[in-house]
Design a protein that fits this description.
Blueprint (H helix, E strand, L loop, with lengths): L2 H5 L3 H24 L6 H8 L3 H7 L3 H25 L5 H17 L5 H9 L4 H28 L8 H20 L13 H16 L5
Helix pairs in contact: 2-3, 2-5, 2-7, 5-6, 5-8, 6-8, 6-9, 6-10, 8-9, 9-10
Protein name: TetR/AcrR family transcriptional regulator
Keywords: DNA-binding, Transcription, Transcription regulation
Organism: Limnohabitans lacus
Length: about 220
């Protein structure tokens, strides 16, 4: 037996290591398809090919499972964006457009974006989960946009502004795209459907033009 064979994990060990990811993937599929309330942990376990008892070894409740899905599929891309924005070398206008396009590529264009629609439709019934989503996703997202806007002001690229209000002007089209994708977009492709990347680039251009300092 060679060294590779000696140290390679057995199939059963690899399967055990993969289970949390497989459970999260199955849970994401079902939460997006059915919503939080209608999804049962038995269904998640069955789709992942394990027993309900095995699921509870990793996630003690449906709420904890949902939180883990949010952390992996929604909060993580936001955290990555914050880290990368801090080392961005271009203009603040370019950074704003980059952020919007990367948001679509890493989140909006993926099935995980259905979580945003789920939260809008079910948050009122699950206030604790709504608070969790606000703290782990919404607030960090706002912090990222706030960083970009303040960067532009500090560098003289953007005029002074009500940053809180402008944050919502930046984020609103992102939410619109997700809602359109999972509402009318789910009914079939329309000949008038938006091209997300084009829409976001155009919106970023409008924002940057409006945020430039006024010339004397």
């Amino acid at each position: 037996m060679n060294a590779t064979e000696t140290h390679a994990p057995h199939k059963r060990e690899r399967r055990k290591q993969d289970r949390p990811g497989e459970l999260l993937e199955a849970a994401l599929d079902l939460f997006v398809e059915k919503g939080f309330a209608a999804t049962r942990v038995e269904e998640v376990a069955a789709r992942a090919g394990v027993s309900k008892g095995t699921l509870f070894l990793y996630f003690p409740s449906k709420e904890e499972l949902f939180k883990a899905v949010i952390m992996e599929n929604v909060a993580r891309p936001v955290a990555e964006g914050i880290s990368e924005a801090e080392s961005f070398e271009g203009s603040s206008g370019d950074l704003l457009e980059w952020m919007m396009l990367e948001w679509w590529r890493r989140y909006g264009a993926t099935k995980a974006s259905g979580i945003s629609k789920l939260m809008m439709s079910e948050a009122g019934n699950f206030p604790a989960l709504a608070d969790f989503f606000r703290n782990t996703v919404i607030e960090p997202s706002h912090a990222l946009v706030r960083f970009i806007l303040q960067r532009g002001i500090d560098r003289g690229e953007f005029r002074a502004m009500d940053i809180h209000a402008v944050i919502h002007s930046v984020i609103s089209p992102l939410i619109f795209l997700v809602m359109e994708k999972h509402a009318l977009g789910a009914c079939g492709q329309s000949p008038h459907a938006l091209v997300p990347e084009t829409f976001l680039s155009n919106h970023a251009d409008l924002l940057v033009r409006g945020l430039k300092p006024e010339t004397p």
